[in-house]
Model the fold of this input.
Amino acid sequence: MTQSPLQLTFEVGFIATMLAFVLAFWAAYLMHHRQFKGKWLLETLFLLPLILPPTVIGLYALIVLGNNGIGGLLPVTILFTKQANIIASALAAFPLVYQTIRLGLKQLDAEWYEAGRVLGGTERQLFTYVTIPLLLPALTSGFVLGFARSIGEFGITMMIAGNIPGETMTLATAIYMATLNGDMTQALIWSGWLVGLAFLVLWLSERYGKRQY
Done:
């Protein structure tokens, strides 16, 4: 089934952000509460995509997902499919979501946990009734910012998903293709959708991301 760039961008953006959100939350939570050798190296790897060019991340993803990597062991093809779109957007969103949640965890007051333990709360109860409610602003901001990053992803997407009309062409890659073909009208239309989505994301972030619990 073919999809328009707008439809694909929404679908891929949501799925990729959910995937990145779940992985980033547990990664940030475990990194915050556990000490082990090589922790700094793992944290560096998590944040590396924030400073590396997307094409570099895309190149390594292309190697890993290709026939000489993990892709060669799988019964299905990942490269240049919708699945590759999702992976590309998740790779772009993960470090941003991780960093937002990590900073949120660092700002939590330890006195809340001490009070909970004094009252006889278990670790599960502290997680459910202390950590999650206090972390909600960071969780909301992380999800919204991750979604904003995923719908605008271009470099990694071009490397591992390509720009196949109706299959892997997102708004970002559609703008590139229209510009390349000299169709500035279509490029402006697609970019208008992306700008509109960006404003919506910023509005949601301002409205829900700064609430206090």
